[in-house]
Design a protein that fits this description.
The complex is a heterodimer of chains A (406) and B (247). Chain A contains 13 helices and ten strands. With 406 residues, chain A is of the alpha+beta class. Chain A has two domains: 184 residues, no CATH class; 179 residues, no CATH class. In chain A, helix 2 packs antiparallel against helix 9, helix 3 packs across helix 8 and helix 9 runs antiparallel to helix 11. The radius of gyration of chain A is 29 Å and the shape is elongated. Chain B has a six-stranded mixed sheet, with helices on both faces. In chain B, strands 2-1-4-5 form a four-stranded antiparallel sheet, with helices on one face. The termini of chain B are far apart. Classes of the chains: A alpha+beta (406), B alpha/beta (247). Chains A and B meet through helix 10, helix 11 and helix 13 of A and helix 2 and helix 3 of B. The complex binds adenosine-5'-triphosphate and magnesium ion. The site of magnesium ion has 3 residues of chain B, from helix 1. The site of adenosine-5'-triphosphate has 12 residues of chain B, from strand 1, strand 2 and helix 1.
Chain lengths: 406, 247
């Protein structure tokens, strides 16, 4: 029998029992959906770390609010609100070997200029960031300490943002754009840096004074991170240790308590990323394994029921000349169709959930074609694996006995 | 050369410790174009015999030559191929696929044949088979929308679709009333007369057996009589004589 006919027959059979088919697919849907979501989260997380590494300058030490490496649960909710602009000042003044310091607060935002608009991350930072990153402006200039002090609504944009907002080639310097519906004056354009080593567009960026982001967008007094550069690469470790000690003292952390911040050098970040990726992969593998196993057993179960219910039909097909192979293919295709349909819907679900996480929780997610391909492949493999036994059973039936089956 | 020739056929069923000897050495030759009625008391081995003739089952011992070829030891797949295009089988219980239209039921054997591969050609062939049994106007009805006699005619059309040379029927009128039985017998007689198809038909009823040209009787797994039917009934004449029914 042709494969097209086989698929048509399978769809027809599944269509007869819509509810049952849906319920059977549910395992696959949830399984594949979970896999896609987790992969997207993992990709997103490692991508944002890569982004940080890629855009960081030399001798850079990153201080982040909150601490997800140790006992994150124990610290409670307010923990990540404790990093203050004053901490940045203290690092600059009290830690020897520190060259530049920039406090930072980020905000994802829709940016509008005229009738053009673009979604980007607005990085609230301080005046020394271009020095840390050794990154000059192409035209105009970066904002000044006075802008930071007054929380001025000024910004400096990357070339990608410029190209998106001013496609006609207008010089953006001096123009007013709207970020989250608030007017900002463009005072400079950063020189183009192109893609990072990880394929991230470094020019898709908007810089504004961190004080502006704090007051105009978020209504907070704390900051999210501090970027520090050491005067020389030799001192990085020492500087990082001093920063940790200073912040622990400033945050009044008892010796038996863990940090409520993270101080990491580029090396740490790279090492941690490998670690995170490994944990994430292990977690993913187990979730994928369990959900596909459960989904697969569901498929096997329903296919066995189906074979029993349709024993007479199988007998008849055999009696009019179907070979064992034809019956085997018919039931196998049915199992594969269930698992692929489930996989397909699961991919949609995973995509939706990922988008939701990004949109509402601002967790970075990223779905790669490979992830979709792998999820689909696993769905098909599950269908084949768990569909084989029932299909074998059907194909081995004796025509006369099957026809007599009550 | 006979189309069907069996020699010393036995079939033993093993049920637990008990051996049921359903056939105990059956020999029979059937020439092309014959219409053989097979009768005998319940449990005498008629169905068992037919299943072996229809390549649905294999004998425990003995030989079966179909068109001169020994088929008693063929593999499952080889038997499937013979069932598909050399033999048409009609069951007492029709065995149509439910929720599948008459024409799709008739087409089914073509799907396992690979020929013809074009849907339109398959439809044409199925339509032709339905016309042979007088049901072309019911092609798109579902089995539950057809009378018993009509369902049995759809099953006959299905058995005919691959132009088999032999048609086997196991009590095809067992579930039908007198009138529809005559209709179905008329179809068999026409196929036998007009297309030269060899027909073997199991029946309990003597008057149904008389539509054939030859009657073979079974008892306890043996053939106990084999005679020519002298006063053959002709279904077409009887149908003409029946009072018309309101449709
Ligand atoms: N699958 C089976 N397993 C065990 N015994 C069987 C099986 N099929 C048939 N038999 C036995 O073989 C014998 C012949 O059965 P068969 O069905 O051929 O009889 P029959 O002549 O067709 O009867 P009927 O007129 O009632 O249909 C019976 O005794 C029956 O019990
Ligand atoms: Mg019988």
């Amino acid at each position: 029998m042709s494969i097209v006919m086989t698929f048509r027959i399978a769809l027809k059979a599944l269509n007869r029992n819509k509810m049952r088919t849906m319920l059977t697919m549910l395992g696959m849907i949830i399984g594949v959906g979970a896999v896609i979501t987790m992969v997207a989260l993992g990709n997103g997380a490692s991508q944002s770390i890569e982004q940080q590494i890629a855009s960081a300058g030399t001798n850079v030490i990153m201080v982040n609010a909150g601490n997800f490496t140790t006992g994150g649960v124990r610290m409670g909710a307010g923990a990540s609100n404790t990093l203050m602009p004053e901490d940045a000042e203290a690092i600059r003044n009290e830690v020897p070997g520190v060259q530049y310091v920039a406090a930072g607060v980020d905000q994802g935002a829709q940016i509008v200029a005229g009738n053009q608009n673009w979604f980007s991350r607005v990085q609230g930072t301080d005046v020394e960031l271009p020095l840390i990153r050794a990154w000059a402006t192409e035209s105009g200039s970066f904002f000044t300490p006075a802008d930071v002090a007054s929380a001025a609504k000024v910004c400096v944009i990357g070339t990608t943002v410029r190209d998106m907002l001013f496609p006609d080639g207008t010089d953006p310097v001096g123009q007013v754009i709207r970020i989250r519906n608030q007017p900002f004056k463009v005072i400079g354009v950063m020189a183009s840096r192109g893609q990072s080593a990880m394929g991230q567009d470094q020019d898709d960026v908007v810089f504004a004074p961190y004080t502006t982001i704090q007051k105009k967008f978020r209504g907070i007094t704390y900051i999210q991170n501090i970027t520090v550069s050491a005067a020389s690469a030799d001192h990085i470790k020492k500087v990082a240790e001093d920063i940790t000690a200073l912040l622990r003292a400033r945050h009044r952390i008892q010796p038996d308590e863990s940090d409520d911040f993270m101080v990491r050098t580029l090396e740490d970040i790279a090492a941690m990323r490998t670690e995170t990726t490994r944990t994430m992969t292990a977690l993913l593998a187990s979730i994928a394994g369990v959900s596909l196993l459960v989904g697969g057993i569901g498929i096997m179960n329903i296919m066995l029921v189906s074979v029993t219910e349709r024993t007479r039909e199988i007998g008849l097909r055999l009696a009019i000349g179907a070979r064992g192979r034809d019956v085997l293919t018919q039931f196998l295709v049915e199992a594969i169709v269930i698992s692929l349909l489930g996989g397909f819907i699961g991919i949609g679900l995973g995509y939706g959930v990922s988008r939701g996480l990004t949109r509402f929780l601002e967790w970075p997610t990223f779905i790669t074609p490979q992830a979709v391909g792998v999820a689909f492949g696993f769905a098909a493999a599950t269908g084949i694996f768990f569909g084989f036994y029932p299909a074998r059973k059907a194909s081995a039936l004796d025509p006369i006995e099957a026809l007599r089956y009550e | 050369m006979p189309v069907i020739s069996v020699r010393d056929l036995t079939r033993v069923y093993q049920v637990g410790d008990i051996e049921v000897r359903a056939l105990r050495g059956v020999s029979l030759d059937v020439e092309a174009g014959e219409f053989v009625s097979v009768t005998g008391p319940s449990g005498s081995g008629k169905s068992t015999f037919m299943h072996i003739l229809g390549c649905l089952d294999r004998p425990t011992s003995g030989q079966y030559f179909l068109d001169g070829r020994d088929v008693s030891r063929l593999s499952r797949n080889e038997l499937a191929a013979i069932r598909n295009h050399q033999i048409g089988f009609v069951f007492q219980g029709f065995n149509l696929l439910s929720r599948t239209s008459a024409i799709e039921n008739v087409e089914l054997p073509l799907l396992y044949n690979g020929r013809p591969s074009k849907t339109s050609e398959r439809h044409r062939r199925a339509m032709e088979a339905l016309r042979l049994v007088g049901l072309e106007d019911r092609a798109h009805h579902y089995p539950n929308q057809l009378s018993g006699g009509q369902q049995q005619r759809v099953a006959i059309a299905r058995a005919l679709i691959n132009n088999p040379s032999i048609l086997l029927a196991d009590e095809p009128t067992g579930n039908l009333d007198t009138r529809t039985s005559i209709e179905v017998m008329d179809v068999f007689q026409r196929l036998n007369a007009e297309r030269g198809i060899t027909v073997l038909l199991i029946t309990h009823e003597r008057d149904i057996a008389e539509y054939g040209t030859r009657m073979v009787s079974f008892r306890d797994g043996h053939i106990v009589s084999d005679e020519k039917i002298t006063r053959r009934r002709i279904a077409a004449e009887e149908m003409a004589a029946l009072p018309p029914v309101a449709v």
